[in-house]
Amino acid sequence: MPRPGAVPAAAGPQRGNHFDQYEEGHLEIEQASLDKPIESDNIGHRLLQKHGWKLGQGLGKSLQGRTDPIPIVVKYDVMGMGRMEMELDYAEDATERRRVLEVEKEDTEELRQKYKDYVDKEKAIAKALEDLRANFYCELCDKQYQKHQEFDNHINSYDHAHKQRLKDLKQREFARNVSSRSRKDERKQEKALRRLHELAEQRRQPEW
Question: Is the model's pTM score more than 0.85?
Answer without folding.
Answer: no
